Every structure is written in C-alpha cells, then in structure tokens.
Amino acid sequence: MNIAVIGLQWGDEGKGKVVDYLAKDFDIDVRFQGGANAGHTVRVGEKELIFHQIPCGILNKDITGVIGAGCVFDPSVFFEELNNLKKVDPTIEERIKISQFCHLVMPYHIMIDRIREETQQGIGTTKKGIGVAYEDKYGRIGLRVGDMFNPERFEKLLKHNLSRKNLILMEIYRAEPLSDNEIIHQFREYADRLRPMVIDDTAFLSRAIKEKKNIIFEGAQGTLLDINFGTYPYVTSSHTIAGGANIGVGIGPLYIDKVIGVVKAYTTRVGRGPFPSEDDSCLGEDLRKMGKEFGATTGRPRRCGPFDAGVVRYAARLNGVEEIFLTKLDVLSGLDKIKIGVAYNNKKDFDPFLAEELNPIYNEIPGFKEDISMIRDFNDLPEQARNYIKLIEHHTNLQVNFISVGPNRDAVIKK
Ligand code: IMP
Q1: 81 lies in the same domain as 136
Q2: Same domain, 91 and 204
Q3: Domain range for residue 162?
Q4: H/E element, 167
Q5: pLDDT digit string (tens) for 249-294?
Q6: What is the DSSP string of 271-304?
Q7: CA-CA distance, 324 to 264, in Å (whole number)?
Q8: Does residue 226 sit in the same domain as residue 342?
Q9: 124 and 93 share a domain?
Q10: Is 16's C-beta closer than 6 angstroms to any atom of ligand 1?
Q11: Among candidates 13, 16, 14, which has minimal Cα distance to 216?
Q12: C-alpha closest to that of 372 among 317, 345, 334
C-alpha cells in the first residue's frame, strides 16, 4: 500500500512524528515538495532530531529515503543534516536518494529571500530561499541537481543566472554581488559527494511500485500553505496537498491508495497571513507554552488558537482525506474548557478568499486535567478527552484513527 501523509492546517501539525511512527511498515519514504523550510521533529529517547530535507522515516533501518523531483534542494543544509544524522545511524547515507530533477537552492536565492523579508513587508518566510528557487524553476532559468554532473553546462547556466541576480542585488537591493567562481567551486565539491546518491526518482519509484514495495509520501508544510489553495499570498511556493505527491515524483495518480491527514488538537501558524481562530490572549499564550510552539526551522514563536473544524473540513476536501492522525492532545490537559470552531459568523465553510473576515463560532466542552502521555488505549482516556475527539469527528466528518499523546515515538493511541 502507498499512502500520503498530509498536514491539514498551516504546517507544524506533527508530521515528523507521524511519518516516523507509520514508516515502520514501509520500504520507501519520499519527500515530494518544499525544501529546508520544513522542520520535521522526531524525538528519540531524550534526543530531538529535526529533519529539514531528509525524509524523517529514515530512522527506521530498512527504509530508503527519497528527496523527490518536486523538492528544492540546498546541498549545504543537506550535508549538515546528514552529518548530524550519521551520528545516530551511520547507514543513513547509503539509504538516501536524491532526484536528479530537484531544483537547487543557490546562495543567491537565500540572499534575496532574506533581503526581501528584511527590507520589504515580507510574508514571513523561513528565509531558506524556497520561494526564490521556485521562481527560477517556473521562470525556466533554474539549475537542477542533474546539472551538477555536467560542469560545462552548470557553469554556463550559473553564469547566466547569476549575472541577472547580481543586477537585482546591486540595483534594487543595494547589496554586494556574489562571485560565480566561489559558487562553482563549492558546488563541484558538493557534486562529488552527492554523485552516488543521485537518481532518476521516477524510474526508481515505478520499479518499486512494480515490485509491490510500500511507499509513504511525506508531505511538508500544510494544506493551508498550498500555492494554489492556501491563504494566498501567505503561502509557500509548492503543492502541499496530496496531489502534489504525483507531480512531485512523476508517478500516476492511481498509485496512492490512501491519504492520512495530520491535524493538531488546536491550531497554529507561523509567519503572516489570516488565521480565523487565532487567540492573542491567555489561551494562545498558554498553548504556545504548553505545546512548546516555536518554529523548528526558525525558532519563531508560533501563533496559536483553538481547533478550527472549518479549516480542517476544507483541507480534507482538497486531499480526499477520510481519516486523521490527531496530534498533541496531551497539550490540552489542564484547560478548564476546550473550544472548537464549528462554523463562521457569516458562512458555514472556510473560504481562503474571505479568511480575513471569518470569525469562528465556538462550541465549548469541559476539559480534562489528567496527564495522558502514558495512555495507550482509547478507552483509558478521560471521558472529557474522548468527548473532545468525538466532537472533532462530528464537526469534521472524519474519523480519528490515531492519537498522539506525547512527544515520544511510542506515545500513540491506535483507535
Ligand atoms: P517559505 O516556505 O519559507 O517561503 O515561507 C512561506 C510561508 O510558509 C511562511 O508563512 C512560513 O512561515 C510558512 N512555512 C514554510 N515552511 C513551513 C513549515 O515547515 N511549517 C510551518 N510553516 C511553514
């Protein structure tokens, strides 16, 4: 079976833990979009590992991790991440494959992303160069991983691209230009080390499908950050929905058997943009503290608020999701009352065009006080926690099949 794991909110739903947990039954874990803007966290014992580009199911020993064609790839972040992970498991390098089709995130992409965010009214990006790299991809002037192994071609493309970027840097942003020689030299070194890992991912995956291997497609960011259907322009630059998996690795749409939606028991968002259930008073502050809601990539405090069923219904529709993996339920322990947004003042359903004007209408139920992090059986959960899950199911029309009750790898209830 091949499944896609997709965030149904604004990212940071806990997909890292979910993929790590589910991946034990899979042979291949594929990232299909985004890049080092992602921060998928997996807690192993006392250690917290943060994955930016490497598929996080790779901690399972028999898994091959693929960074698919739809991703943008930053070699410097990749090697830093790989070197850290190899301290945990030295076999990881042999189990990672990178698509030759991935577009490269170049130093000038990062520089322009940073300058735009710092000097203009940015959208609050992660400053990892993601949007600028995708601009070059769709502007058909980008450099791809496969280009690194043809030095002449790489040099020609780079010089062409950099001459335009240096003009922008100097004339528009009044910044220093970058030297092509330095970049060429640096990328030659990267190429030597990357060579054994680079593949045609479409061929690799179609062979795997023929051999009946099980593939998990690991979504990054979340549905509300999707370039087409998110809260545009406050979105990322890739297709974060399940359909992105097909175009992101070049396999037919019929090869994904199931989509699991990952949903946090409340809502968070980093960066600017509309967020109807945002709570900027005590509740939001409590959730940030209790849920340790600080960005895994940038360290920025996340904006927090109650669960918004309208957002999840909208996201479930875009992904064809029928079941959800609910995360961070334990964070709500201690609240006297738990609120859930069920509709909006002037509309039943979420509409990204009207997101600024939507005010949620809330249902409120009594909260629970117990520490639930050691519970592994649904029936052992406090009655109020079970009621909250039922309320989520009722207002989203989705089935909650898994519940994460703590940061540890095994802190999961399978319903
Ligand atoms: P970019 O992807 O860095 O261009 O940022 C665009 C928007 O997506 C910003 O609001 C970021 O905060 C948000 N974003 C990007 N990656 C993530 C993520 O992994 N989790 C949550 N938000 C993200």
Answers
A1: no
A2: yes
A3: 103-193
A4: helix 151-167
A5: 999 999 999 999 999 999 999 999 999 999 998 899 999 999 999 9
A6: SSS--TT---SHHHHHHHHHTT-B-TTT-PBPEE
A7: 10
A8: no
A9: no
A10: no
A11: 16
A12: 334
Distance CA 392, CA 386 (A): 10
| Residue count of the chain | 415
Look up 394 and say whether it is catalytic.
no
Of 236, 259, 282, the one marking the end of a domain is 259
Counted domains in the chain: 3
pTM greater than 0.90: yes
Check whether the bond before 233 is cis (ω within 30° of 0).
yes
* Residue 37 pLDDT grade (very low, low, confident, very high; cuts 50, 70, 90): very high
Q: Nearest C-alpha to atom 15 of ligand 1 is from which residue?
A: 37
Q: How far apart are CA 19 and CA 34, in angstroms?
A: 16
Render pLDDT for 181-239 as a digit per residue (tens, 0 to 9). 999 999 999 999 999 999 999 999 999 999 999 999 999 999 999 999 999 999 999 99
Domain containing residue 307: CATH number: 3.90.170.10
Looking up tokens 């061929």 gives 203
Sign of CA pseudo-dihedral 282, 284, 287, 290: negative
> Which amino acid appears at position 26 of this protein?
F
Q: Among 304, 256, 301, 253, which residue's Cα sits nearest to residue 278?
A: 304
Of ligand 1's listed atoms, the one at least distance from the Cα of 38 is 19
C-beta of 41 in contact with ligand 1 (< 6 A): no
Do 105 and 133 touch, CB atoms closer than 8 A? yes
Same domain membership, residue 405 and residue 324? yes
Residue 40 known to be catalytic: yes
Instruction: Give the helix, strand, coil percentages of the chain, each rounded to 5.
Output: 40, 20, 35
CATH code for position 7:
3.40.440.10
Query: Do residue 302 and residue 401 come from a single domain?
Result: yes
330 and 383 part of one domain:
yes
DSSP H helices in 168-220: 180-194, 201-210
